[in-house]
Amino acid sequence: MDSVIDVIDVTKRYGPSRGVQGVSFSVRRGEVLGLLGPNGAGKTTTLRVITGFLPANGGRVLVEGHDIWEEPYEVRRRIGYLPDNPPLYPEMTVYEYLNFMGQLHELPAARRGVRIDEVAERLQLGDVLGRLIGRLSRGYRQRVGLAQAVLHEPPVLICDEPTVGLDPRQIAEMRELIRSFGQEHAVIFSSHILHEVRLLCSEIVIIHRGQVVTQGSPQDLTERLHGGTTQWLVRAKGPGDAVAAALRSVPGVHAVQEQPSPEGEAETAGVVRLLVEAGSTGGEDLADRLFGALAAGGWPARELRQLETSLEDVFLELTAAEQASSTTVAEPAHAKAGPQRGGGRR
Amino acid sequence: MNKWWVVARREWQVSFQSPLAYVLLGIWMLLAGYFYVSILLGNQTTNLSALYQNLIILLLFIAPLLTMRLLAEERRTGSEELMLTAPLSPAQWVAGKYIGALLVWTVFSVVSLLFPLVTSRLGTLDWGITASSFLGLWLFGASTLAIGIFASSLTENQVVAAMVSFAVVLLFYATTWIQTTGWVSTLLTYVSMPGQLNNFTLGVIGVQNLIYFVSLIFGFLFISVRAVDLRRWT
Question: What are the domain boundaries of chain B?
Answer without folding.
Answer: 3-232
